[in-house]
Amino acid sequence: MRRRRPSLLPALLGLLATAAPSAAKPRPNILFVFSDDHAPHAIGAYGGWLKPADPTPQIDRLAADGMLFENSFCTNSICGPSRAVIMTGKHSHKNGFMNNGNSFDWDQQTFPKLLQKAGYTTALYGKSHLKGAPQGFDDWKVLPGQGLYYNPDLITPAGKVRIEGHCTDVVTDLAVEWLKTGRDKTKPFMLMVQHKAPHRNWMPALRHLPLYDDAEIPEPATLFDRWEDNAPPARHQELEIDRHMDIHYDLFVDLTPGFTGAPSQKRQDRSAWRNMKRMSEAQLDAWRAHYGPRDEAFRRGDMTGRQLVRWKFQRYAKNYLRCVRGVDESLGRLRATLEELGIDGETVVIYSSDQGFYIGDHGWYDKRWMYEESLKMPLIVSWPGVTEPGSRATQMVQNLDYASTFLDIAGAEVPGDLQGRSLLPVLKGGEAGGWRDAIYYHYYEYPSVHMVPRHYGIRTDRYKLMHFYQFGDEWEMYDLQEDPDELRNIYGEPGRAALLAELKKRLAGLRESYGDDGDVAEMPDDWKRKMRGG
Ligand code: CA
To answer: Looking at the domain assignment, is residue 509 inside a domain?
Structure first.
């Protein structure tokens, strides 16, 4: 990692401390802006192929002002579990929230509770996805479950309220209001602004519908991947743009409350249906005015095969990026509010998302796998006077580290049972000696929507080893340096025995160190047959 330029700040602070011992440096505020399913390759500052004119100017500005983590990964690539890991600083098998069907035990130790004890005031707005009343927050307003994109309900300590508008704007408004008038200004704060966007089914604000209309979003190189070299699970999933993305349900063709057809995936995620029904007549009119002529053109095209996949990809990627733009604007508004209040210099601003996502990569949408696109998560931190502007960290970090980091930033004690590491030394630009040289991953939600079986694995700076254990003993291994798209499974290849033995040993070591040993659930025989293509 690049070293930070020598700063005069410590010397100046020393002088100040000498002159006025009582004026201790105030502890920084923390503004955590967190979105849902925002892949790093849909952020300008992260590069990648997905670059139609500047998708994220505000997030890019945050990266220019602070530090971007190039090797940032989740431990379990799905919404609720990722958030539970962040709350607790513990892997899924330790915090008990292994898949979205679980309920989070709010009585357990979480970092917001510890921050409150340390004198911080805390607030949470937007998507919690952990079920139950949040604990550890002085104020909170959260979406029920996935929440709706338009005119969402929010659960508050005083009951349920419905607020008109697009969800990203509604959540931002709540956070801005709390910053200005809601919080206890005698205390430093931890504010978590957690957006629903750009989660499925990717419904942008009306003002963003025209964005990218004339653009052609570049297709990922792996859009027509057939997973020929993978273990069987990759060929038996249900998250293909081709076969599983529904033109009504996911892409809104003809989908209005008057539509009487039966979207094939309605049962899998009813939120799409509820989202359309929640829109006001005026909102629907604007929606129809945009999509109507485009749906007509789609029908006239009478597309099939690869042409249809390409059309679906374009509509999906554009809606996804339009939702991303809303989140990007939210970050801009929140930072402008900090400046307006004169507290931007004493506030750490963080942008992250719960996991990565497939935006046509490997022919897919959704997440769950340990492959790169959904394993990676964005992490950008700007801490005025601490992070060097425009710096990039290469250490392997995870959402597991957030709780320890927040507590460390606040100067609070970090409990010994947390499984992550504070990023403070990295943020300060030091060498962070003895940093981890591999990360551990474990996904559990199967059988379930999209049919990605349970698997765990290890990723080092160069290699990845994955174990699918539910229906037998299937492995995949990749050399990410030679094969960044993970198209050539080198598990079992001649000449790789020593590498494989080393990776298996290190994987076993990680499992032992994190206390993950009881996972080999038996599957029913019919599932095993299905996964083997029988
Ligand atoms: Ca998510």
So the answer is: yes
Task: Please tell me the distance between residue 300's alpha carbon and the centre of ligand 1 in angstroms.
Answer: 35
Angle between helices 281-301 and 305-340 (to 10 degrees): 150
Supply the pLDDT for residue 15: 46
Do residues 329 and 411 share a domain?
Answer: yes
Q: Is residue 10 part of a domain?
A: no
**How far does residue 277's CA lie from ligand 1's centre (Å)?**
23
d(CA 10, CA 25): 11
- State if pTM tops 0.85: yes
Residue 436 lies in a domain: no
328 and 472 co-located in one domain: no
Let me know how long the chain is. 534
At residue 323, the pLDDT reads 98
Quote the ligand 1 centre to 379 CA distance (angstroms).
15
Q: From the CA of 74, how far away is ligand 1's center (Å)?
A: 11
| Same-domain status, 450 and 416 | no
Number of domains in the chain: 2
Enclosing domain of residue 78? 26-203+320-428
- pLDDT at site 48: 63
Averaged pLDDT, groups of 10, the chain, 534 residues long: 47 45 75 98 84 84 98 97 98 92 93 98 97 96 95 98 98 98 98 98 97 93 97 95 91 70 60 83 93 92 96 97 98 98 98 98 97 98 98 98 98 98 95 90 92 96 95 94 98 96 98 81 52 45
Q: 199 CA distance to ligand 1 centroid (A)?
A: 7
Distance from residue 21's CA to the centre of ligand 1 (Å)? 46
- Is 33 in the same domain as 166? yes
Compute the distance from residue 445 Cα to the ligand 1 centre, in Å: 13
**How many Å lie between the centroid of ligand 1 and the Cα of residue 187?**
31
Could you tell me the two tokens for 187? 């205390």
Contact between residue 261 and residue 523 where contact means Cβ atoms under 8 Å apart:
no
Q: Determine contact, residues 263/272, Cβ cutoff 8 Å.
A: yes
359 belongs to a structural domain: yes
Let me know whether 37 and 128 are in one domain.
yes
Angle at 204 between CA 203 and CA 206, to 5 degrees: 120
Domain holding 123: CATH number?
3.40.720.10
Same domain? For 62 and 104 the reply is yes
49 and 128 assigned to the same domain: yes
pLDDT score for 18: 43
How far, in Å, from the CA of 37 to the mean position of ligand 1?
A: 4
> What CA–CA distances, in Å, run from 444 to 38, 76, 86, 344, 374?
21, 8, 17, 40, 15
Cα of 334 vs centre of ligand 1, distance in Å, is 22
The encoded tokens of residue 4 equal 């930070």
Ligand 1 centre distance from Cα of residue 355 (Å) = 6
